[in-house]
Amino acid sequence: MKITLTSVAKGPRDTALPPTTVTFRTGEATLAGAETEQRPTVLGLIASGRMRPDSGTVTIDGDADYATIRRRVALIDAPDVCEPASDVTVAGVTAEELMFAGRRSHPLAVMRELRALGLHEYARQSIGTMPPTARIRLLCELALMRDGIEGLVITSPDRHGGDPAQWWDIARELAARELAVLVIAGAASATAIAATSLVERIQSTDAAGQPPENLAEPEPEPGPEQTPAPDPQPEQPPAPEPETEAEPVAEREDEPAEGPDPENATRDDEDNA
User: Fold this and answer.
1) Protein fold of 2-84+152-207
2) Contact, 9 vs 20, CB < 8 A?
3) What is the pLDDT of residue 200?
4) How far apart are CA 23 and CA 56, in angstroms?
5) How far apart are CA 34 and CA 11, in angstroms?
6) What is the pTM of this model?
7) Using one digit for the tens of pLDDT, what is the confidence trace for 106-164?
């Protein structure tokens, strides 16, 4: 699912909402900036198909079909539109949302759902005192119990305080469940989230690669005193051992030298005499 708002604006001279372009799609969390008290709600209503802009276009998968957008996208915690009253207990808000989703809403069913979400400890507290991240998680999970919901438009979560990076993490976790998530917040929150995302990218890059000082250096080219190693030659069979050569004549004592022996010649002469 892909929902695209192109240059949407609302109000006389675009006072309620200046021309705004934003796209959110399945599997992604998108952050849209909107300042002042009223504009985030106006943008949320338009993005969820509950209000038509005075100018610009809104499409879902290329078609201008507001009814389909309303059926498939839930508007979460929009001020003055669908935010729960601050003095209602968490259990009371949960029971109401279960009823809208067509589920059992008696006290046992409420506690069962809160336990499943890990939020049962807040059951007796008013939702106005609930921690911001727990509040956003609860309202999003309850909205997803309705049939056919594939997208969420979370409006002004920064008005409850807390660290923007925490509720942004919730938005990304929801998007990872194959949901289209749009979060509308002020510029300060957008700056904080951008800074956090930058730090995460740097840390993930450092963890995946080697530090700069340990990077492998390229092999140096052969210099005047360095020659490249020769290519390995195929292994040759060993040469046959040479036949044993005769020892030099001069070094052998058992073989007479060529020519007459002077000692034998003298003996022969004496015998002849």
Assistant:
1) Rossmann fold (3.40.50)
2) yes
3) 62
4) 13
5) 15
6) 0.72
7) 999 999 999 999 999 999 999 999 999 999 999 999 999 999 999 999 999 999 988 89
Cα 139 to Cα 160: distance, rounded to the nearest angstrom: 14
CB 143 within 8 A of CB 77: no
223 has pLDDT over 50: no
Tokens encoding 141: 């999970």
Residue 79: CB partners within 8 Å, gap ≥ 6?
37, 40, 41, 155, 156, 159
Dihedral (Cα; 197, 32, 169, 163), 10-degree rounding? 80
CA atoms within 13 A on the CB side of 59: 9
Q: Phi and psi for 50 in degrees, rounded to 5?
A: -100, -5
168-171: long-range contacts (C-beta < 8 A, 24 or more apart)? 168/29, 168/31, 168/193, 168/196, 170/133, 170/136, 170/137, 170/140, 171/29, 171/31
Domain boundaries, the chain: 2-84+152-207
